[in-house]
Amino acid sequence: MTTCAECGFEYDLSLAPSVPQLALDAADAYGPLLRADAAVLRRRPAPQVWSPLEYACHVRDVLFVQRERALAALRTNTPVAEPMGRDERVEHDGYAEQQPADVARQLRDGALMFGHVLGKLSPAGWDRTLVYSFPERAERSLRWLAVHTLHELRHHLLDVRRAVDAQNALQS
Fold this sequence. Notes:
Four Helix Bundle (Hemerythrin (Met), subunit A), two-stranded antiparallel sheet
């Protein structure tokens, strides 16, 4: 079983059927953090480190992209999940200028929509595959995609929480 060295998340594929609710719970946990002062949410702790708002926008987009990837795997045999352009999206979509309350709502909507697709999977559906490029290019099941998406939500929640807490400590 793979474990994230930074956040301790374990890629337990048996969690996959629970991901719809777990993803929604994780998405909802961003809400209180996104009610912090907008200046705090938009501030990068270092030039190459995303702000809390940028991380939240990234996770929102991950949910929508992963939903589309799952749907592609259901209609096509082993599609290639093209990279989402995560770094480019920060600028192209103006993550730092977005409204935190909108992003919190969109995170919840994304989790609901992703979870709805997962919730409709048959036992055979969970075994449908796609080619995924992270952490290395490999054929992955939708079970893995679900668990990986949950990891993204939880891992970046820690990033947002740390950044908000650090900014609040500096202002105290």
